[in-house]
Amino acid sequence: MVMDGKADFQTLIERAKVTSLQEIVYMSRKFPATYVVFDILQRDGTSLLDLPLIERKRLLKEYVRGGKSVVLSVYVEGEGEAYYEAAVKKRYGGDNGEEEG
């Protein structure tokens, strides 16, 4: 789950613990979840693990449709390390992953 733009695993855990229909309905409305799909490992009983990741990403886009509660992850081809470094810098404000204080 993401709350205020940050991952909130504690809320996700609490949401997953509910068992009564009433609680499930309440929690799903209060804390709607989105399933982020980032890879496809099998299709029609056939393993796709031997395929290169870029090919699995293409198949994922072909076979899985995004929607209100399902999102296909965005990937950066060829510039992954630079993208990662920019994300770390944005998250922590520095170049080395340490928080500025």
Describe the global form: flat
Strand order, biggest sheet?
1-2
Averaged pLDDT: 83
Tally of helical runs = 4
Query: Which secondary-structure class do the elements indicate?
Result: alpha+beta
Low-confidence stretches: 95-101
Distance separating the two termini? 27 Å
Query: What are the secondary-structure elements, in order, as H or E?
Result: EEHHEEEHEH
* Radius of gyration over all CA atoms, rounded: 18 Å
Strand residues, percent: 5-15%
Instruction: State the share of residues found in helices, binned by percent.
Output: 40-55%
Biggest β-sheet strands, sense, barrel: 2 strands, antiparallel
Number of strands: 6
Explain this structure:
The protein has a domain at 1-33. The chain is 43% helix and 14% strand. The protein has helices spanning 9-17, 21-30, 53-63, 80-92; strands at residues 2-3, 6-7, 35-37, 42-43, 46-47, 70-72. The strands form three sheets. It has a two-stranded antiparallel sheet. The chain has a two-stranded parallel sheet with strand order 3-6. The chain has a two-stranded antiparallel sheet with strand order 4-5.
What attributes characterize this protein structure?
101 residues; alpha+beta; two-stranded antiparallel sheet; 4 helices; 43% helix; 14% strand; flat
Secondary structure: elements and pairs:
Elements: E1 2-3, E2 6-7, H1 9-17, H2 21-30, E3 35-37, E4 42-43, E5 46-47, H3 53-63, E6 70-72, H4 80-92
Parallel strand pairs: 3-6
Antiparallel strand pairs: 1-2, 4-5
